[in-house]
Amino acid sequence: MVTANTIMKKTTQKIIGDSNGFTLIEIVMVIIILGILAGVATMQFGSNIDNARFEATKSEMNALVYAIVGNQQITSKGARSEFGFVGDVGNLPPNLDALYFNPGYATWNGPYMDGSSLASIKADEWGADYIFQDTLIRSVGSGQNIDKVFAVSTASLISNRFDGRIVDASGNRPSASYLDSVLIRLYYPDGIGGIVSPFTNPDTKGQFNFTGIPIGMHTLEIIYLPENDTLSHSVTINPGRDASIDIVFPADLW
Question: Are strands 243-248 and 160-167 parallel, antiparallel or unpaired?
Answer without folding.
Answer: parallel
